[in-house]
Specification:
The protein has 160 residues and is an alpha/beta fold. Helix content is 42%, strand content 13%.
Length: 160
Amino acid sequence: MRLLHHFACTGGTLIAKCLAALPNTLLLSEIDPLSRLRVNPHNPHFAPSDLILHLHYSLRGVEDEDIVAVFLGGLAALLDRCDRVGRRLVLRDHAHSQFCHGPQIPDRPTLAAIVGRLRPVRGVLTVREPMESYLSLLAENYGGGPVGVETIAADQRMGA
């Protein structure tokens, strides 16, 4: 099992697209089965093929382990198919969901820990110069940061 890890605005989309273009490679991008970023019980969106989203919207509630079980069931079928046709599956995680959203980091397993239940994991972590990443986050309106950093970032953008 291969995983690609990076934070938002670090060039991950470009790297993922290059990997996806490789022969016999299937890349699924921005995967986090336990993310709740798009779950809005007051305004559920139409997603007829998304079992996990429907679990979130169920009247009975859902436990993380139920979500993980559904995710792993689908992933196991996909891995079997990739094995049969000679493809390599690469999952690009969505670390932003877990580590950069909300007031605190939730106590839950990472994508690597989840998929490691099926197969051994090989991961690659990409990085970018931190100030460039932060300026890109601001430009994309992905949120602020520690008090005072916005001023430093504004000065960097103006060439100060």
